[in-house]
Amino acid sequence: MTTKSTKKNLKPIWIALAFLALVVICLLPNDSSTLPVAGQRALAILAFSVILWMSEAVSYPVSSAMILALISILIGLAPSMEDSSEMIGTSNALKMALGGFSSSSVALVGAALFLAAAMQVTNLHKRLALWILSMVGTKTKAIVFGAILVSIILAFFVPSATARAGAVVPILLGIVAAFGLSNESRLAALLVITATQAVSIWNVGIKTAAAQNLVALGFINSEFNEDVTWIDWFIYAAPFSICMSVLLYFVMIKLIKPETDTIEGGKEIIKQQLRELGPLKRSEITLIITSVFLLFLWATEEKLHPFDSTTVTIVAIAFLLLPKVGVFSWKEASAKIDWGTIIVFAVGISLGTVLLNTKGAMWLSDAVFGSLGLDSMPILATIALVTLFNIIIHLGFASATSLASALIPVFIALATTLPDVNHIGFVLIQQFVISFGFLLPISAPQNMLAYGTGAFTTKDFIKSGIPLTIGAYLLVLLFSATYWKWMGLL
């Protein structure tokens, strides 16, 4: 109780610190020769945002409303970059602040949330998880393999990391409980950490698996006028996630020794849960057919048809909401959707776009990386340094979406200064790294969901997170030197 009160009492201090940083950066001397006034104010808003995001002094949607207001006023009252004798104007700045809401990536995130809600309403994600677990053996190692496999399969169909963790973790804890062990047992820690880390690993492997991927793609599309198709992303990233899944399996079975090597009756427990779900309902069959068809359209984007991922997903959601033929009502859908996620996502894109358009991102890239002489380094050394920076910064962020909003504009600005490098490929690799939420429970929402079950301690999670993070870092360097280079990503 005391801890919660202390944490709550610190929130006003963090808010005051955020405003102090905003004011100080706005008032710093600047001759505007290298950094326009609007860019300086954009950086001040970024500092304000990062402090609120890292401290969680206010909720993410509330911080988004504050960011919108600050962009509208501070950027609106800044001198125009075309004519310093005129102001940008609050109406023009408001358009910039709301620009993220018109991004197709935001529409795809919204549609993905509806798809995840459809899975939850019909319980199809739970049935899929139970089906897969029923096919593995009763040995503990087989259940660990099954937990990873479930996370992989669900990543194709459930475009929400939190929803995937929410489906798998209760099932695994049910198996543990039926065996007569508590949530605090080593078996529970083994299975829940495995499933949660697998969710993060496959956030990298599949474009539609996580919102932060779409943040990066929104910036890439805006700045380079190019998109990365679902299948191209899969070709680049899935081999990385497969390697990480193998590493996860061996790390977990070596790291945590469960109370038993065999879960007798494990299959029967799962079959009982399947029986409780009853036979496949019409709504589930409809959702299965729609999801498979949607996956096919995502995978063949720009190959067999002219439709982009966002358009086909929105059409699918419209179908699923239809009375009589659909699978859920608007009321059921809206009750399952965190609308704040869409707002946070859109405002993050707006802030990043403002940073890029006002040259704030370029200035920050020069300030952070300029002195390192990255433009004269081999690309592998550059990736090694930037990836390490990315991993360290992630320690302070509870949201990969917010981290992508803050860092991807900087990485885009950095990429444009590097000679003989595929700019999109460089940014994409750093986006993969942004999904590395392996180290701490606070590093990702799905980690916090699992941590809330009491199945493991922070120490347990860190023990698994350290080798996974080191392995992922070395794998990024290996893939950059070989596979990604061969595939034209660098």
Rounded Rg: 23 Å
What is the ordering of alpha helices and beta strands? HHHHHHHHHHHHHHHHHHHHHHH
Q: Report the sheet with the most strands, covering strand number, pairing sense and barrel closure.
A: none
Count of helical stretches = 23
User: Overall pLDDT, averaged?
Assistant: 88
Strand content: under 5%
Please tally the β strands and state the result: 0
N/C terminus separation: 51 Å
| Helical content (DSSP H or I, runs of 4+) | over 70%
| Outline | globular
pLDDT < 50 runs, ≥5 residues = 1-7
Q: What structural class results from the helix and strand content?
A: mainly alpha
Structure description:
It is a single chain. With 490 residues, the protein is mostly helical. The protein has helices at 2-27, 37-55, 60-75, 90-98, 104-122, 124-135, 140-157, 161-178, 186-205, 211-224, 230-255, 266-277, 282-299, 309-320, 330-336, 339-357, 360-369, 379-394, 400-415, 423-434, 445-451, 458-481, 483-486. α7 packs parallel to α9, α8 (161-178) runs parallel beside α21 and α11 (230-255) crosses α22. The chain is globular and about 75 Å long.
